[in-house]
# Entry
Amino acid sequence: MCKTIKTIIITAYCVIFLHSLKYLIFDTKEKIIELNYLVRTSANFRKILKDIKKNRKNTTILTLDYERPRRFSSDLKFILKWNNAYIHRRSVITNGQKSFLYQNCTYYNCYLTNDKSLLVDLRCFDAIVFDVDCDWDEHPPLRTPYQIYIFSASESASNYPVCNSNYDNYYNISWTYKLDSDITKPLITILDKNENIIGPKANMTWIYPMLPTSETVKKKIMYKKKAAAWFISNCHSENSKARQILAEKLSKLLTKVNLTLDIYGWCGNMVCPRDRIEECLSLLRKEYFFYFAFEYSLSEDYVTSEILYPLLHYAVPIVYGGANYSRFLPPGSYIDARKLSPNEVVSLMVEAIKNPDIYKDYFKWHNHYTYKETPQDDICNLCQILNEPTHNRSVVSNFRKWWNPNYEEHC
# Structure
């Protein structure tokens, strides 16, 4: 019996010793690996900059002989924001891990930086984000097969077309406002009455039939007197001429029936300073039946937060853009000026203004949905993709056409 107990005790001690030894070796290796991964010198950084500047033709060479430092799956995923991506005002993304922690992401072992010299070699980064809004003439001279190249965009494809054929078969992940992106970041968010995010999305479904417009909403819209308003600050956009011509046609037709289109801003004859936009929106809520939500760029799925002006201030949007608006707005809640003739648009406006019962039906959606500006980029999905190897990391073969089917007209 004593020999048995001694054997058990000795065996237990051996197991503990071996486990501790294994842990020490494992921990030491992890520290060494991280150290080798992060160590850099001024000479290394000068070489990186030299390689980048030497290669200004937007070509990146895929290297197969590069030996990637061995790391653990739980290690930080280093994401390089190329050319100061996310410097625009809407972004809440910051360097480091803060963004992943702040958004309470399932995976938060990701580290964002725009310091190209953070690691010993550009090929050590797990992913590189290229923001189309920024100057991106210089691209990494070398990449490896395991590296994820991410195309990011908040601005329209018409204003920022991708022209160089080198970008076909180049990106692994798309992170844009387009609803068929790998990671979507629409500029507006649709919620149900339980505050669940339900859209926008490509296969959007809406409640039908919707409940009648509530008495609360009826009281908010019953004292309106003016036909339509339009707040506009960008008079020289890619779509400015077309939308200006359409607005003039609609204005003339409205004048014939003793109605007016009031245009506020640099492109109109009425004043609405940006620092007093709330006063203008209050006027929209109280006095105007319709609002002209004309996009400054015609691109698929490109619907800016301007659509929220009428939606949040009890006016009916008259839309004009490149999007399929059934993905963004409930049926019967808007008038699509790109699908209808100017005469048809004005006819619907006059019909609603003269018939309160018809006008109130445009607001049935208030019983079922709410809208808000998308507050932040979906940084959590980015980290999740880098942590889940099952994600499809193939490249888009005809990327230029996916991003903008009419790219040749803009290049």
Observations:
- The CA atoms of residues 179 and 201 lie 6 Å apart.
- The chain has two domains: 42-185+377-410, 188-373.
